Amino acid sequence: MQQPAIQPNTQPASELMLRETASQTAGPYVHIGLALAAAGNPVRDEEVWNEMAKPDAEGEPIEIVGNVIDGNGDLVRDAFLEAWQADANGNYQTDYDLGKPFNSFGRTATTFDHGSEWSLTTIKPGAVKHPSGQLMAPHINLAVFARGVNIHLQTRLYFDDEVEANAQCPMLTRIESPTRRQTLIARREEVDGKVRYRFDIRLQGEGETVFFDF
Predict the structure, then answer these.
(1) Residue 115: exposed, middle, or buried by beta-carbon count in 10 A (0-12, 13-18, 19+)?
(2) Where are the beta strands (DSSP E) in the chain?
(3) Angstrom distances, CA of residue 187 to CA of 8, 18, 19, 21, 27
(4) How distant is the alpha carbon of residue 77 from its chain centre?
(5) Among the listed residues 39, 61, 38, 48, the one whose alpha carbon sits nearest the alpha carbon of residue 196
(6) Strands 135-136, 139-146: parallel, antiparallel or unpaired by DSSP?
(7) How far is residue 146's CA from residue 159's CA, in Å, rounded to a whole number?
């Protein structure tokens, strides 16, 4: 007598081959839940978004802008980024409150409008102490999510006008190649009298951004 077929959910998990979920889950679905404006949906009254610092926040007000670029040199128009940075005194603010002048955490996204740029309104962070006791150069930590990127990528943004601090940073100097190190440096601009830094993230190919395995 032929035995009935065993249903997949009756087999031990160790005997099953678990397939990846669609890479699309790292793309537009993220925007629907976490980047409502970028997805074309109505925004909530309280939203974690790209204004990390208000005008009365302590420190130098700056704007960060950039593109996300794939291995073919094309713009990734539906990437999602999360930012984490210290305040002007080099301290991370762990209690998020939209009523505060500054929060250490923010989110942003590229879109199909405005040249597909992502942006952050924040303040220039202070130097943070490394576990070794050395000071790390001012930086912003960035996590990048996108279609086809099943595990988010982690990188850092440093500032080109912090030459001395960058040269002594215990994290930045671990990158042996000076050319590769430059992929983490944001370029200072002045637009309408305001300070802005440009930082493009290249996911693959020539000039690929350095990513960290934290």
Answers:
(1) exposed
(2) 61-66, 68-69, 80-85, 105-109, 118-123, 128-129, 135-136, 139-146, 149-159, 185-191, 194-198, 201-202
(3) 54, 44, 42, 37, 28
(4) 15
(5) 61
(6) unpaired
(7) 25
DSSP state, residue 102: B
Burial 11-42 (b: 16+ CB within 10 A, else e): eeeeeeeeeeeeeeebbeebbeebbbebbeee
The model carries a pTM of 0.86
What is the rounded distance in angstroms from the CA atom of residue 184 to the CA atom of residue 88? 20
Q: What is the rounded CA–CA span in Å between residue 185 and residue 114?
A: 23
CB atoms within 10 A of CB 195: 14
Name 121's bridge partners.
Answer: 51, 63
Question: CA 106, CA 92: separation in Å to the nearest integer?
Answer: 13
Q: What is the mean pLDDT of each run of 10 residues along the chain (214 residues)?
A: 55 58 57 79 88 97 97 92 98 96 96 85 97 96 89 96 97 96 97 95 96 88
d(CA 95, CA 46): 15
